[in-house]
Write a structure and sequence with these properties.
Layout (H helix, E strand, L loop, with lengths): L3 H11 L7 H20 L4 H13 L5 E3 L6 E3 H14 L11 H15 L4 H21 L4 H6 L9 H10 L4 H13 L7 H4 L4 H22 L15 H4 L33 H13 L7 E7 L17 H5 L2 H10 L16 H7 L2 E3 L10 H5 L6 E7 L4 E6 L12 H12 L5 H14 L9 H4 L3
Parallel strand pairs: 3-4
Antiparallel strand pairs: 1-2, 3-5, 5-6
Helix pairs in contact: 1-6, 1-9, 2-4, 2-5, 2-6, 2-18, 2-19, 3-4, 4-5, 4-11, 5-6, 5-8, 5-11, 6-8, 8-9, 8-11, 9-11, 13-15, 15-16
Length: 461
Amino acid sequence: MKQYTKIIADYLSNLKYEDIPAEVIERAKLVTLHTVGAAISAVKTEAGKNIIDVAKTLGEGGKEATIIGDGSKVSVGNAVLASGTLADLLDWEDCSWTGHPSAGAVPTGLAVAEAYHKSGKDYLTALVGGYDVYQRIAMAVQPSPQRFEEGWGLHCWQIFAPASVTGKLLGIKGDKMNQLLGAAGHMTPVAINLIHSSFSDFYHYTHGLTAQSAVECAMITEKGISTLMGVLEEDTGYYFGVSDQCDWDWYDKDLGKRYMIMELMLKNWPVNMWIQTPMDMIHSIMTKNNIDVDKIQLIEVSPYIPERSEDSPADGYDSLVAAQFSIPFCMAMYLKGPEVGTEWLDEKYLRDPEILKMAAKVKGVGETSLISHNFDIFQQGSYPSYTMKVTMEDGTVYDEAVQFPKGHPQNPYTREECIDCFKLATKGLMSEEKQDALCDFILNKLEDVKDMTEISKYITL
């Protein structure tokens, strides 16, 4: 039988910068810029301030790294706790079809590379390899649709992204890399549904907490532990701790040829992944037509997605996550709220009468599309098609149909579009001069950086 853990561990151990195609390195840079922008956009939010305060309270010492945006230096584990949480807070970071590896992989990679004086090439290599490990494990252990609907959590396999990136940057290899995957598997959280069914804001914190745990696992493994190898195999059982099935082929098919970082969606809007297409459609309709927002009678979005398309609650939303995951709320914020950016999902809007009035005009219609049933589509490189119909009070109708939202691998960002999105996310937080300097550092200079401590001055507001 194949030893899948060894195959994955050896691949990551042996991956070299020179092995990675130029277009994959370019994507790694765009993902880095996109994720850093998402983290900076959340610095002034209430939750952002809170997690930065927690990281500072936990303190300095040992190997230190910079909290993205805030600029404070704390121990590397505390830095990734803060930066990993910030990266997910506005739900703007790019995502895979199984979750948000970027929220762990990018902040962790930057922090560990800074703390351990690694090069830009070291960082990029670790990032590419970390995505391969994470996505293959996550794809392999995707639950059946029945298990999915019963309750589970994307954060269950999140740890493999930051753990793999940290292990690669620390030079962990061979059997020790195998052990690190075992340590990460054993630090996977129990898969319960409460965090999703309650739309708790704690969901965002799990990304930082998981990244912190991953760094600690790597440090412990580097010092030396016994046994703990083979976590991905059938008889040792990572998969049946989080799933009811395993697609073993995902672990090694096209390994070293199919780079998973190329299959990410760079999110165009600070909203849940399933709302990217509706946001693109309403933006297209509004920019192509001279529409009076207050004369809109009805907005119909198809397919109807349970827990995304429900009618807006008359008394408002209980949490920011509930709003971020609501098509009616996000449509209303686009139409009646502030400019998209760091102020866009301020909690004061969760019960704003004007926002709720507009949200009540948005309805999910047509075929019901359960999220769990779309993973086969994602694995094939496709995406569900959406349609939208906007009906005005005078009976005028505007239609739009989109399959691939902006940022999807089939409708990718150009470098210039990624820069524009970064500048939108950081507008009002960074000067234009600082924005340009950070873009230039990541997109044009990163390969030549000998010591990633240089990153600190660019990610500090």
